[in-house]
Automatic annotation (TrEMBL):
Keyword Aminoacyl-tRNA synthetase attached: yes
Complex formation: Monomer.
Name of the protein: Glutamate--tRNA ligase
Domain Glutamyl/glutaminyl-tRNA synthetase class Ib catalytic, first and last residues per copy: 2-308
Species, as recorded: Candidatus Accumulibacter affinis
EC top class, as a word: ligase
Record GO cellular component, one term: cytosol
Catalyzed reaction equations: tRNA(Glu) + L-glutamate + ATP = L-glutamyl-tRNA(Glu) + AMP + diphosphate
Keyword Cell inner membrane: no
InterPro entries named among the record's database cross-references: aa-tRNA-synth_I_cd-bd (IPR045462), aa-tRNA-synth_I_codon-bd_sub2 (IPR020751), aa-tRNA-synth_I_CS (IPR001412), aa_tRNA-synth_I_cd-bd_sf (IPR008925), Glu-tRNA-ligase_bac/mito (IPR004527), Glu/Gln-tRNA-synth (IPR000924), Glu/Gln-tRNA-synth_Ib_cat-dom (IPR020058), GluQ/Sye (IPR049940)
Keywords, sorted A to Z: Aminoacyl-tRNA synthetase, ATP-binding, Cytoplasm, Ligase, Nucleotide-binding, Protein biosynthesis
Enzyme Commission code(s) on record: 6.1.1.17
Amino acid sequence: MIRTRFAPSPTGFLHIGGARTALFSWAYARRHGGSFILRIEDTDLARSTPEAVQAILDGMRWLGLDHDEGPFYQTQRLDRYRAVIEDMLVAGSAYHCYMTPDELDRLREEQRSAGGKPRYDGRWRPEAGKTLPTPPAGARPVVRFRNPTDGVVAWDDLVKGRIEIANSELDDLVIARPDGTPTYNFCVVVDDWEMGITHVIRGDDHVNNTPRQINILQAIGAPVPRYAHLSMILGDDGQKLSKRHGAVSVMQYDDEGYLPEAVLNYLGRLGWSHGDDEVFSLPQFCEWFDLDHITPSAAQFNTEKLNWLNAHYLKRAETPRLVALVQPRLEARGVTVTGEPSLATIIELHRERVGNLNELADVAEVFYIDLHPRADLLAKHLTPETLPMLSNFIERLPAIAWETTAIGALIKEIVARHGLKMPRLAMPLRVLLTGMEQTPSVDAVVAIFPRATVLKRLALAGRVTGTGSS
Ligand code: GLU
């Protein structure tokens, strides 16, 4: 039974690297019919915030990465950590150390000036036949893990291959502070054990913690999970992904008009591959996902590809869903979506042409507001040549059938009569009706408006130029 977990520290947003870790852990559990556990690592009280917890939960919900167990909060499990520490003290795999921070600093200073690596010297570590110093009166000790002194700690990383660290490289890690609170690595160990985690999939910024965690797991008699350390994500520019790159928080992608399935599809390919497949649904991803095809080298973010995927999914999304996603964006701009044309009609006409939900909102907005086309566009397209055609068009509108073909035929007839080309009439129509020079086919744009609105918007031609065409 496969059990994976996502264990974010709630110190900021759910960023894109965390989301990929979550996706891979989730998909691995789903692929194998296992369980996916959400654990909030909130023991760093100074840096953890309820807002960050909420941001993580929101991000996971937006992506649709549902958990089977949790969220577990480490701050609610402190008694468990303490109990395990007590057991370790009794078993001798942990011990009290009364060295003060000052003493530690002095020791490190001496080691450094002697050209060595600063490390704990084991002065409070119990050994057979060794007499320990007398604990200073009233001092509160830390608890240290009794790390093995010889041999190596090794694991076959499912991404990076075999990794071996000599135990002589590892200090006796502090697992509880003087006030009794457990430290980071220790909580992870107890949780991975008690939550029965079989596969730890996480960022490779944790590779250095792994040998320590394995040693503690072995000391408490816990099974050692398999580890898969994911390489980091670089920005478009090849630099480590950071806030400088803009949208690094998952919810910012929502703000910017991306669909979650596009982001998921994109993240799925970030460091993992299935042949040449670029486009896949989430169920498809779950079916294909494995740890064998994760690249150990860094993955580079490619915004263009993400945009391409987003446009792809926009074309395929169900219209009612897009309506539900675009309407709140319009309302947030103070635009009331009411009357004709319906938002669904507008979306269907434009979805092939836009890259994201905000662009869809941009084109939809012009249908619902009191439109004021830009003066320069009016001046450019309302000319002595085009105005008579517009007048003809307006005169004929009341009597024609209100559908795309008839409107298209009328436009063609008028330009032909004036011996001009299509765009000479299409452009002023576009600008007067939508304020934009680029729209879908002009006959279709005219046809989705109510006839009265078209007449009203085209009447501007007369007012702007004083030709009285209205
Ligand atoms: N809490 C850690 C982080 O947010 C992850 C710990 C782990 O996955 O073991 O980076």
